[in-house]
């Protein structure tokens, strides 16, 4: 089985002064081939399950580099916990996070986007980027 080396990853690692390694490739592959929102520990454990010999520190450091270089999106879900998702396109979406179940719903609403732009404009600004997270509970 031939492994595919990501030229983008090689370039990013070089720009950060880091060597390309099979472990870093495995971390990137694990994230980009899974659309779930996972924390670094989940990613580390999945790699260990697949018998990838990688340290926890390498996973965390590599994820930080991927976030910095916009290959991975970091989502702060409160209480010091962050989840990560691949950023394979520039397509924007927001998140609803259920406080009871931990479920995450991705959504896009043009009216909400337009309203944000209007509010910023009313105050003399232009929205460059934003993070919109709704923390929700089921209606009972």
Can you offer a commentary on this structure?
- The protein is α+β, with helices and mostly antiparallel strands.
- It has 2 domains: 7-86, Winged helix-like DNA-binding domain superfamily/Winged helix DNA-binding domain (Arc Repressor Mutant, subunit A); 94-136, Dna Ligase, domain 1, CATH 3.30.1490.190.
- Helix content is 40%, strand content 16%.
- It has 5 helices and 5 strands, in the order H-H-H-H-E-E-E-E-H-E.
- It has a 3-stranded mixed beta sheet, with no helix packed on it.
- A hairpin with a 5-residue loop joins strand 1 (72-76) and strand 2 (82-86).
- Helix 2 (22-32) packs across helix 3 (40-49) and helix 3 (40-49) crosses helix 4 (56-68).
- It starts with 6 loop residues before the first helix and ends with a strand.
């Amino acid at each position: 089985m031939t492994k595919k080396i990501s030229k983008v990853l090689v370039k990013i690692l070089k720009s950060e002064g880091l060597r390309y390694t099979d472990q870093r490739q495995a971390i990137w592959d694990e994230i980009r081939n899974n659309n779930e929102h996972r924390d670094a520990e989940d990613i580390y454990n999945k790699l260990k399950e697949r018998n990838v010999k990688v340290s926890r520190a390498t996973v965390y450091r590599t994820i930080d580099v991927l976030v910095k270089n916009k290959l991975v999106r970091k989502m702060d879900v409160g209480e010091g916990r962050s989840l990560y998702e691949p950023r394979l396109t520039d397509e924007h979406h927001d998140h609803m996070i259920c406080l009871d179940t931990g479920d995450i719903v991705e959504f896009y609403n043009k009216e909400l986007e337009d309203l944000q732009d209007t509010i910023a404009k009313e105050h003399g600004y232009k929205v460059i980027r934003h993070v919109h997270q709704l923390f929700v509970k089921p209606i009972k």
